[in-house]
Design goal:
heterodimer; A: 159 residues; alpha+beta; three-stranded antiparallel beta sheet; elongated; B: 366 residues; mainly alpha; EC 2.3.1.225 (chain B); transmembrane helix (chain B); transferase (chain B); membrane (chain B)
Chain lengths: 159, 366
Amino acid sequence: MAREFHNLQELRHNASLVTKVFVQRDYTEGTVCRFQAKFPSELDNRIERTLLEETVKTLNSYYVEAEKIGGQSYLEGCLACATAYIVFLCMETRYEKVLKKISGYIHEQNEKIYAPRGLLLTDPVERGMRVLEISVFEDRGSGSSSPSSSMSSAGSSAR
Amino acid sequence: MMKNCEYQQIDPRALSVLPQSAQNNTEKTVQRSRRKWEVFPGKNRFFCDGRIILPSQSGVLPLTLGLIVVTCGLFFAFDCPFLVKHLTVFIPVIGGALFVFVVFSLLRTSFTDPGILPRATPDEAADIEKQIDTSGSSTYRPPPRTKEILINQQVVKLKYCFTCKMFRPPRTSHCSLCDNCVERFDHHCPWVGNCVGKRNYRFFYSFIISLSFLTSFIFGCVITHITLRSQDGKSLVQSIQESPASVVELVICFFSIWSILGLSGFHTYLIASNLTTNEDIKGSWSSKRCAEESGNPYSYNSIITNCCATLCGPMPPSLIDRRGFLSLDEAIPAVSASEIELPPFTVKSDAHMEENCQDFALSCTA
């Protein structure tokens, strides 16, 4: 099933977008950021189930780390309160640091796993943390799918 | 003059679109990259190139600031000299520190993005519509859309936001004043001139707590001042006549204290039970509605954990990315969206027809 037809650069500039698949948020544990591990049926013949599930699981663990309420977040909160919240203007919060890590991870996953299969992940932070958007590009191998969108590139993930 | 412009059909849709597309072309040729705040759909105003965000109506924020500054100004000018002489120099120091903290918290609350959720992209909205249509009826006017999910084994209804075109995450509400969906929406505070939501709730709480301390402190100091003056062998009326500013401060503080202290107490209760004002008012988790003991699925069932989670929890970044640059394909949907929205508003566009005609005429002859 692993067909090497695309690379990341090619996807961004040349390939035609077929559709976008959205992985929704999972709210069963409250308002913490978590994505559903359910495999979308549209991707059945594009990517192995385990790969996507692994990506989603890793992303979820990153978000858990970002939103963890523990010693460091208390320290950050108390320091911020003591300095009348001026420190937030100068310092990068732990959440922002983890988000940078996530964006690096998504870029890496796109390069290694998704782009060669004609898929592209969009960082959830660019969609308001509501969905994990997976852009599905024309499958050069079969040549049967027709581009349905007028947009030629949806390379809006890691810049 | 209109005949020179070469359009035969007076079609409102074409009229409203043509000047815009002409505008779009000039924008593309100029190649000025625009930041996302310039095309933000909500009712907000932006300053410092997107660094500062405010709702379109700033409510009575100037009044709040004015009251605080005037009261403190009078306090430092008229009461402090007397109190420093008779008591201690720490009085203006404490007063000054409280004043600075209050003003900073207030400005932080007003100018911070409360947790605005960006609206769904057209693809996302289409995907959601598809999911609803497969399960719903095919009548022209679909019923109000809700989705039920389980949170911590409790059923919660998620509502569909017709403005933002998405199912609102739990605890999110749409503020009609700002025309935005805000996460963990508490309320829209006119005194602060902004919504209070996930990202600025702790600033708001610091503001009202510090303001409670400040008003109580000033109230106490002024009472002490007048008492000390009248103890020097003068009557109460004489003391008041000597320092009329103190009376002004007393009146302001007296009326503010009740409401501010009440508000502080109320919000302390909300924080301890991990509720929002919105939920409390609607009675979403009240015991009368729910059969279970603790109706609130978000509560950690411990006062300290609830407080820490709300006040000292991690600070999520702003999701609307005000200062990011628009990519070209993001700028295009703005035009197509307006085309879709035109038919219901034919009456409105007729009124602007004259204006649009003249604009187009000018662009033709230019």
